[in-house]
Design goal:
Blueprint lengths: L2 H21 L4 H15 L4 H35 L2 H13 L4 H12 L5 H19 L3 H18 L4 H10 L3 H27 L26 H24 L4 H9 L2 H19 L4 H35 L1 H11 L4 H16 L2 H19 L3 H14 L9 H10 L3 H26 L4
Length: 446
């Protein structure tokens, strides 16, 4: 089969995925599996070989991804239910002062956004935004956008969130380097799309009403309060350990110390230690019942389960492309067009994101298609990490009506659809473009 027909089949598979998810409302997990099986058969694969590729891709990805996402979800559930997120937010706002609240909210979003999923963190902190808006007499978007931009960039770039974990597993990104470059690219993006954009645009017509947003009752916590210091440690220790392992892997000589550093800083171990620390603190210091702690952790796994399945199905699609030879054709086409892996991955993720809405599906799809190109390009580990950042940036742009996040922001901030477009959609686009710009800027030194 020639290159032209192969590329048409791959393009058709992406179109089919978008139609199934967006028009037919097929769950992304099923849609990705159907597309993987159908693409393999249309490309001429034997049915048994196609099924084996799906099994291989799914199994290899979930062996790692499921553990990381599950542990991350349990850690976030403990911190949310114990009031650790609220404690951190109030302490940082007090430290920064009301006049610098947008910068405090950016810091809150960056720290809280490491362990908590975007929607959970936003819902927990929404009452705080309402309080600030009423107290300062400003539009709620002035305070919300710094928080939203920071939460979104962390969700798109840092483990243990599903998207970056899936991309890292599919294209072979080092997790320590991903954490390093994720922060290096994500923090400037959060600042530009958050406080800078809010300060420049909050006074423009149609950006949001001066009236206060709807007030939602604060979520009742089912655990005793954990306090500021242990909550902060629970949020940041896993990331610090992962980055320490990456540093030790490159700077330490082979030996027991290097092995110990790598073991402690592995995402499995780092997240287990964080969950254990928070759980023991809640039991021994705060006096929370063991049954309640266990219930909170189990409940936190519910939203993570579907994300894990989506990642597995995306990995199956990637494996079918590789074993069918379609990945080699895509690599050759991109190379002949002089398009770098960074640009190709960003544009592909952005296209799928705009077309079907889900950032996780966009990241998984882009990583699956870009994996053969990255493997053949001879990139350094740092450049592979920057490609992961570019995919996260592409999957963040242009949140609109087919994205659940769009409606979540609209509802909790009390905005019209037009106001949500002018504020949140622009914010997400600026953040995604800024992530990509930072990755491109750092490319030659990675």
């Amino acid at each position: 089969m020639g290159t032209g027909p192969v590329l048409l089949i791959v393009a058709g598979s992406i179109a089919a995925l978008i139609v199934m998810v967006l028009r037919l409302k097929v769950p992304a997990f099923i849609a990705l599996l159907v597309v993987a099986l159908g693409t393999g058969l249309v490309l001429g694969g034997e049915p048994g070989a196609v099924l084996e590729a799906v099994r291989k891709g799914t199994g290899e990805a979930l062996g790692f991804v499921a553990v990381v996402i599950g542990l991350g979800a349990m850690l976030g559930g403990l911190l949310e239910a114990s009031g650790g997120v609220a404690a951190l937010a109030h302490r940082l706002l007090a430290a920064f002062g009301e006049k610098r609240a947008p910068w405090a909210l950016t810091a809150i979003g960056i720290i809280v956004g490491v362990p908590l999923f975007f929607d959970v963190a936003f819902i927990v902190l929404a009452p705080l935004l309402t309080t600030l808006s009423l107290r300062a007499g400003r539009r709620v978007t002035f305070f919300a956008l710094p928080l939203l931009a920071a939460l979104m960039t962390m969700h798109a770039l840092l483990p243990p969130h599903p998207g970056p974990v899936a991309v890292a597993e599919l294209i072979g990104t080092d997790y320590g380097l991903l954490a390093f470059y994720g922060l290096l690219c994500g923090i400037p993006a959060a600042i530009v799309a958050g406080p800078v954009f809010a300060l420049l645009a909050h006074g423009t017509p149609g950006f949001g009403d001066q009236a206060p947003p709807p007030q939602f009752d604060e979520l009742t916590h089912s655990l005793a309060a954990i306090g500021f210091a242990p909550a902060l440690a629970g949020m940041l220790v896993p990331l610090a350990l992962i980055m320490l392992a990456a540093l030790g892997g490159s700077a330490l000589p082979d030996g027991a110390l290097k092995s110990a550093t790598g073991f402690i800083g592995h995402p499995f171990t780092a997240l287990i230690l964080a969950c254990g620390f928070v759980g023991f603190w809640l039991r021994l210091v705060a006096g929370a019942p063991l049954t309640t702690i266990s219930t909170v952790m189990t409940r936190a796994l519910e939203p993570a389960g579907l994300m894990v399945l989506v990642v597995g199905a995306g990995a199956a699609y990637k494996e079918v492309l590789i074993q069918s030879g379609a990945g080699e054709r895509i690599t050759a086409l991109v190379a002949s067009a002089n398009l770098s892996a960074l640009v190709f991955a960003f544009l592909l993720a952005a296209f799928v994101r705009v077309a079907q809405g889900s950032a996780t599906v966009a990241m998984v799809t882009a990583a699956g298609l870009a994996a053969p190109l990255i493997a053949a390009a001879g990139l350094t580990p740092g450049q592979v990490a920057l490609v992961t950042v570019a995919i996260g940036g592409g999957a963040s742009v242009a949140s609109h009506v087919n994205d659940t996040g769009f409606w979540l922001v609209k509802q909790f901030l009390g905005l019209t659809e037009a106001q949500t477009f002018r504020s949140w959609t622009l914010c997400s686009t600026i953040a995604g473009l800024s992530m990509f710009a930072m990755a491109a800027l750092l490319w030659r030194w990675a």
